[in-house]
Design goal:
The protein is an alpha/beta fold. It has a single domain (6-68, 112-452), classed as 3-Layer(aba) Sandwich (Alkaline Phosphatase, subunit A), CATH 3.40.720. 36% of the residues lie in helices and 12% in strands. It has helices at residues 6-11, 13-20, 22-32, 74-84, 114-121, 140-144, 156-165, 176-184, 234-248, 254-279, 291-304, 306-309, 329-354, 425-436, 443-446, and strands at 52-59, 69-71, 95-97, 107-109, 125-132, 196-198, 213-215, 313-320, 360-366, 385-390, 399-400, 423-424. Strands 1, 5, 6, 7, 8, 9, 10, 11 and 12 form a nine-stranded mixed sheet that branches. Strands 2-4-3 form a three-stranded antiparallel sheet.
Amino acid sequence: MSKYNRRDFLSTLGLGCASVGATTLLSGITNMGLLNAAAVANAPVYTQNGYKALVCILLSGGNDSYNMLMPRGTSEYTQYADVRTNLKIPQEQLLPINTLNPDGKLYGLHPNMPNIQGMFENGNLAFVANVGALIAPTTLTTFNADIDLPLGLFSHSDQQKHWQTSIPQDRNALGWGGRLADVLYTNNANQNISMNISLDGTNIFQRGNTIQEYAIEPRNNGSVAINGSTNNGFYQSLKRQTLDNLLDISYQNILETAYANSVTGSKNTSLEFSTAIQNGTQFTTVFAEDDLSERLNMVARTIAARDFLNVTNQTFFVQLGGFDTHDNFLLEHGDLMSKLDAGLKSFYDALVELGIENDVTTFTISDFSRKLVSNGNGSDHAWGGHAIVMGGAVKGQKIYGQYPELFLGNSLDTGDGRLIPTISCDEYFAELALWFGASGADLEYILPNIGNFWTPGSQPIGFME
């Protein structure tokens, strides 16, 4: 048997991660905010009546949203078909939606989205058209002059960061969901578990100065326990007792103390979270077995345990990958639209069953949309695209913003149908933050660029009640 003294144990991160479980350990460390907690002091205390949650779904890889929401009118569809060529969906296969938009234009959805069609028609879902990462309003003139353009434009890694931080001029910014939690976390009576819950490990969106994400898994009771913590065998019990003894020691080195406290906090948080999930309100809605539906099922179970967790505000981060469709586009994108359609419907049904659909808003983000032109059998990186927002508080059955013209060389086309966004991420996120409980004055901290797009006194876009 290997022998470790306390210094070996605390200085060997490999042993620590193996004993604790990487997800829970990392959650504990980041929840403590060891590296940046000192950056925020004297946080304001907000009070709010009732529960509210934001659920962010990252469509990772760049969703080709011009094959998710398409024009259906004769002339507009012809324009779409001409530019998409072999990527187009036949007009008769589009699922028609009847918008409340005053322009009278006709639109349709991908044929694998019948549930989203139904939720749209029922007023519980809306689209935000041609939204993207911007520093300031941008035109072809300013684009060609390289004025105020996001860093790494059209790059996966940069654009994913920009959507999660909403500060596209900085590659090292914190997440806007984290900054939102920095402002509102005192709403939650229980400070043992972060306001920000991730179903996909660490992420940028939920990383703030004070508040970071607590990572859980989509199965069982969500939390990742210390290995052997639920096993009463001799060696597991001995290992558990040895770990507890090490954690009970008072350490002189501050990093050793922080590490020991982190492990202890992770252990306690895991048990508290698991107990709450087991005691949460039960629902009968059935979810599919794909990754997205399993994650949304756990989000619903966590929301169902909100009273046991004693929380008022929560954000959730979920990821659906596979959208980097440079090849085999029609088949792969169609499969992803099916998963998104099924996951959103089951999640909304569960919220209705729990009677909390008006208090949870789900929204999609993605790296970027993709070029309108085909690369042969797929589509390449672009910029502005369409997003989905769903919930009982959403002013649904509308397409918000300007749905762009889809011919090459239009006033937004930077080349090959790579379109400049006409709505910024800041406006999109500001609408959600204000609904969540932030004040207009808070937005300068949460979304530093918002002043370039919006003047306080009105809704940034208007899709939330």
